[in-house]
Structures are given as C-alpha cells and as structure tokens.
Design a protein that fits this description.
The protein is built from nine helices and eleven strands. The protein is of the alpha/beta class. Helix 8 links the parallel strand 10 and strand 11.
C-alpha cells in the first residue's frame, strides 16, 4: 500500500513513518508538509484515465494503452496545515475523482471536523490520542477496502423512478443524488397514472431498479399504487415511500 502523508509537524510525521515501518513494513509512505505540496504531488495522476508523469515509488511505467495506476492508495492528512486544511486536500481528491481513500487526522475532541470530513467524502478518521499509532495500519487498510468496495458499487448505475408532483422536491432530490450518489439515475414522473404507464410500456431491461414514491400522490395513495402494481403487473423491485416526519402509521401499513 502506498500512502501520502500530509503533515507539517516534522516530529509527528516521523513518528508515523517509524510506526508504519515497524508495524506495517509493506506500507510505503511519502510525506509532504502542506496543501500545496499534496496537490502538486497528486497532480501526477489525472483521474480517471490521465497519465502518471513517470513511475512512482519505484514502479515500472505502465504498458502502452494500459489504464494507469494511482501513485497512492491512501491519503492520510492532518486537518490543520500551514496553508489551509486537510479538507482542502480531501476536496482536491474527490473533485478530481482520484481513485484513492482519504483518512483525516484530528484532535481527540474535534467531533465537528470529523463529521464535516466524513460528510465531504473521507473514508475514515483517526483521533491523535492514546495508542492511535498502534491502530493506524489497521485503520488505513480498512479505509482502503471500504473505498474499493464503494467504488465497485458505484460502477453500476441504479435506475430510480420517482413519483413526486412537486418540481421543487424533485429538483432537491436530483441535487442531493448528484452530489452524494452520482451512480443513481433519477427518472421523475408526476403521479400514479405516469407510473402505471411506465411499467405497462417498459420491459425488463428498461424498467427501474427502485421505485421511489411520495406517499401523498394525486388521485391514488402510494400504498394503493404499490398494491395495484404488485397484483396486476407482478412488481418485484424495492419500493421506498417518502412521508411526512413521524408518519409511523404509514410505515406500518407499508
């Protein structure tokens, strides 16, 4: 595993290097001390098909026509850096779709930063307290495995048919999915009749993978619509109902 460690405190960086050399000698670590240095180093790889500017970490150049390998598997970044934040490094990696996991190093009580980093796409975090160096190799390996599993899932598009009469709600849903789940393809219709027509005209290859329904549809409730689809057309895909807050009775009926 190749790790890019972004840390400006030289003593801390050396502790991490020594710890990995002892506990996980199969991990190769390269160190930089700022956001600018990290971004410059990461620019050696352009995702998803850009070239690497020469071999890295002693690796041989890729064969002509072969997909390039990223120079790093994991980016381990401190959140407090002299020219910015580890969040800037995380943003750089995710905006360019670089195929590598990101783990952030935080203070022991910095829960807000942890939440923000995970929400922005970090694969894991490590609090600098206690025996964190002892658990560091395991955390890095788990983050890489999680990233690869998530990437494999995102390769396959998930087609969702969304019945929602509100254009505003549809737009908000599209924006949220585009930001956090771009592999989900949303097809929006306005009401029950549109859903029935969609299933009547579609075939197995063109039908959605998931049906997303607002509970209060015009003319026919979502529960009645699902019942109709299951009885008449043999609906056998997952159905998600969107209800008002606290509508437990709807969940029980579904």
């Amino acid at each position: 595993m190749n790790v890019l460690h972004v840390e400006d405190y030289a003593i801390e960086a050396q502790l991490v290097r020594d710890s990995l050399a002892w506990r996980a000698p199969e991990m190769h670590i390269e160190m930089v001390a700022s956001v600018a240095q990290a971004c410059a180093r990461l620019l050696a790889f352009e995702a998803p098909y850009g070239p690497i500017n020469g071999p890295t970490n002693g690796a041989a150049p890729a064969r002509p026509g072969a997909a390039p390998s990223p120079p790093f598997d994991v980016v381990l970044t401190d959140l407090r850096l002299p020219d910015g934040s580890g969040m800037d490094v995380l943003k750089f990696v995710r905006e360019r779709n670089l195929p590598m996991a990101v783990v952030v190093l935080t203070g022991s009580s910095d829960e807000r930063s942890v939440f923000e980093a995970l929400h922005a796409g970090a694969d894991d975090y490590i609090a600098k307290d206690g025996d964190y160096l002892q658990t560091l190799p395991r955390t890095l390996q788990a983050a890489l495995e999680r990233f690869r599993a998530d990437t494999a899932r995102r390769v396959h598009q998930l087609r969702v048919l969304y019945a929602e009469p509100s254009d505003t709600d549809v737009d908000l849903t599209r924006r949220a999915l585009a930001r956090s789940a771009p592999h989900i393809v949303l097809e929006a219709v306005r009401g029950p009749d549109d859903v029935l027509i969609r299933f009547a005209e579609g075939s197995g290859a063109t039908l959605p993978d998931v049906l997303l329904l607002d509970y209060r549809l015009p003319g026919l409730s979502a529960l009645d619509l699902v019942k109709d689809l299951r009885q008449r057309q043999g609906l056998d895909i997952p159905v998600v109902l969107v209800t008002g807050q606290g509508a437990e009775h709807v969940a029980r009926m579904a």
